[in-house]
Specification:
By secondary structure, the protein is mostly beta strands. The chain folds into 2 domains: about 100 residues, Immunoglobulin-like (Sandwich), CATH 2.60.40.10; about 100 residues, Immunoglobulin-like, CATH 2.60.40. Helix content is about 5%, strand content about 55%. The strands form 4 sheets. A 5-stranded mixed β-sheet has the order 2-9-8-4-6, with no helix packed on it. β8 and β9 form a beta hairpin.
């Protein structure tokens, strides 16, 4: 073997080493939208992780931006030309309105060792209350104060309220009679007749419904109660 042949072989090996580079491609792209979803729904999405380099792709830790989001890969090592699946779940139970979450896939990819995947959604309450909390400011002992709460049924089936519970003495709710059709609205009337002064109210009302995703609606109660003025 001549000196030039040896040099050419070393150069070829070096070039081969340099060309052996792992790469990661998310086939469907790194951004997606779940669209409008009802609160409480658990959403799922599968993404394809492709090994597009010339060396084995090794997947490491997968981080989610919050506990509401889960992500797991079908494989830890993907040969060149192969593919794996990234399964993403999102639990919407504790959210209302627009959301934006991320999943970060760590790997040995030469061009991006941390691949950021983003998704968004708009979480809709099937049972919308306006206002969502009750404020009895300036209530007076033994004098009734009434607050009206508008209820809108954003769900797909008729909504019925079946009862309520609260530890706040003197509070009575009048629930809608019958059911509220999808897209319809009604009212809950909260009448509070306090029996004693309380400078700071902080209580809760739990209203039960026939909705399987929201079987109970939580209403926070705030405010204060003053003694009646002597006659």
């Amino acid at each position: 073997m001549t000196r030039w042949t040896t040099f050419a072989l070393i150069f070829a090996l070096a070039a081969s080493e340099a060309g052996a580079q792992p790469k990661l491609q998310v086939a469907e792209g790194t951004q997606f939208d779940f669209g409008k979803i009802f609160r409480g729904a658990i959403m799922e999405r599968d993404l394809t992780l492709k090994s597009t380099g010339t060396d084995t792709l090794i997947l490491g830790k997968i981080d989610a931006s919050c506990g509401c989001t889960g992500a797991i890969s079908s494989a830890e090592r993907i040969a060149p030309g192969g593919a794996g699946t990234l399964h993403i779940t999102f639990n919407s139970k504790n959210f209302v309105g627009p959301i934006h979450k991320t999943v970060t896939v760590h790997s040995n990819a030469i061009d991006a060792q941390a691949t950021l995947i983003e998704f968004k959604a708009e979480v809709i309450d099937e049972i919308n209350l306006n206002p969502s909390s009750v404020f009895f400011q300036g209530a007076v002992v033994k004098k009734p104060t009434t607050v009206v709460i508008k209820v809108t049924n954003n769900g797909m089936i008729p909504l019925a309220f079946t009862g309520y519970r609260t530890q706040l003495k003197g509070l009575v709710l009048t629930l809608p009679e019958g059911s509220i059709p999808p897209g319809g609205s009604s009212e809950i009337r909260a009448e509070f007749t306090p029996q004693e002064a309380n400078p700071m109210l902080s209580e809760a009302i739990f209203v039960t419904t026939n909705n399987i995703r929201q079987p109970e609606v939580f209403i926070q109660v705030f405010g204060g109660v003053k003694d009646a003025k002597p006659q």
